[in-house]
């Protein structure tokens, strides 16, 4: 054991890049919501891109290190204090036994990634460490949890000067989308409205789905249950738009009008209630 | 049986969707399962996962698809192949269900609304040989076809906040087993003592699309015996191989 959770924060979990090959069992992919930030975090501590990291949401945890390790925080903005010293994002730092890290709050975006050299060696279920109940015991870390960490490989000096985190790309309201399987069922007016309108994120937004606040009248009908993916935009007959995220179910019965690009899923993962978004259609490249 | 060409389209950067006419039909299911096998055989070197629903196949690639249009033409070729003489090796399963009033919370409602005695309901529910179409909604939740129309019943007006793991229910034209505790709006008629999804197993569920499933009524006493057997690890799920 080498990290202890003193306070869990609002919603803190361990995530890697998700469960592959088990969608046929109805198991959600899960995994980090913002893959781009998580990859950068891993690279900065000398990991491969895909190690398990800690995903911190809005209000961070307090943790005690029980071993020497190299840590980094990646996100758009957060207040982090190691013992009494303020820590900057994107700058790896070494910690010693007994050091306490407090993530006070996330000041920009809503998700922050904490990566550790060697990665988290937490509960592995169906090929992934991503926390998702009932595949793992819990969906989020609890006060008192202990986490295993791989041995710190100090000799492996990292040159991370070349790693550039493009934080500015999160400032856009535009989400690039491909037309979804049921896009052609929309009338021309609806197609136009869906692309010209500024939407805002409702209070129902989670790792499973982001529901948009504005309703759009339509005459679509439910469809027979079909495959869906993270990034699928469902349009319900009642007029709600739901953007499925990493913990989404594997099948659904609402028309799938758009599919977000992988990059847009990452951008959306940093947005919260009240934030504006606008869909921008991107055709598939020839 | 002959099927028209499917619509082939990308679903994001890492998946391709093949969809046929929207219908729930056993022949179409088995046709999709032959195709699924062919696609998996073709892609042995690239890691892909193929999942089916009633009328679609989704091919999920492990990374970005380099050239989507060349994948489309590969899939078009596979889809237009002739599957005559091919066989699928499938299983016929039997799952025990206890329809005792302790578990059959809505048996009285189903009995009243469908004007059938409780024993008739149990008889109708256990006589069908259900087809497993696919898994979705919850990890391990089986979409079954073949419910006797005399048992069709609308969902509860307000869903229960907690339906017990193993609960067997009916909602509209479907029946199924809840793989875990969950909120749910189906009418509950019994409980299956055998876990249908277990994350501790490398294969968390034995059931595959195309497999057949029968329910067998067991007494409360037998239900408890099976629970004990499962705990001790000496319960054997009834199954036999069949070819399609």
Top-tier CATH class of the largest domain in chain B: Mainly Beta
Q: How far is it from the N-terminal to the C-terminal residue of chain A, by CA?
A: 50 Å
Structural class of chain A: mainly beta
Give the uncertain stretches of chain A in residue-range form.
none
So, CATH architecture of the largest domain in chain B? Beta Barrel
Q: What is the mean predicted local confidence, pLDDT of chain B?
A: 93
Largest interface: A-B, 35 and 42 residues
CATH superfamily of the largest domain in chain B: Cyclophilin-like
Tell me the overall shape of chain B. Answer: elongated
Helix-strand topology string of chain A: EEHEEEEEEEEEEHEEEEEEEHE
Number of domains of chain A: 2
Give the neighbour order of strands across the main sheet of chain A: 12-19-16-17-14-13-20
Cα-atom Rg of chain A, whole angstroms? 20 Å
The largest sheet of chain B is: 5 strands, mixed
What is the H/E string of chain B?
EEHEEHEHHEEEEEEEEHE
* Residues in β-strands, percent of chain B: 25-35%
Task: Indicate the proportion of strand residues of chain A.
Answer: 25-35%
Alpha-beta content class of chain B: alpha+beta
**CATH topology description of the largest domain in chain B:** Cyclophilin
Describe this structure in words.
- The complex is a heterodimer of chains A (286) and B (244).
- The longest helix of chain A is centred in the first third of the chain and has 10 residues, at 35-44.
- Chain A is mainly β.
- Chain A contains three helices and 20 strands.
- Chain A has two domains: 3-167, no CATH class; 172-281, Cyclophilin-like (Cyclophilin, Beta Barrel).
- In chain A, a hairpin with a 3-residue loop joins strand 13 and strand 14 (209-212).
- The N and C termini of chain A lie far apart (50 Å).
- Helix content of chain B is 25%, strand content 30%.
- Chain B is built from five helices and 14 strands.
- By secondary structure, chain B is α+β, with helices and mostly antiparallel strands.
- Classes of the chains: A mainly beta (286), B alpha+beta (244).
- At the A-B interface, strand 15 and strand 19 of A face strand 1, strand 2, strand 3 and strand 4 of B.
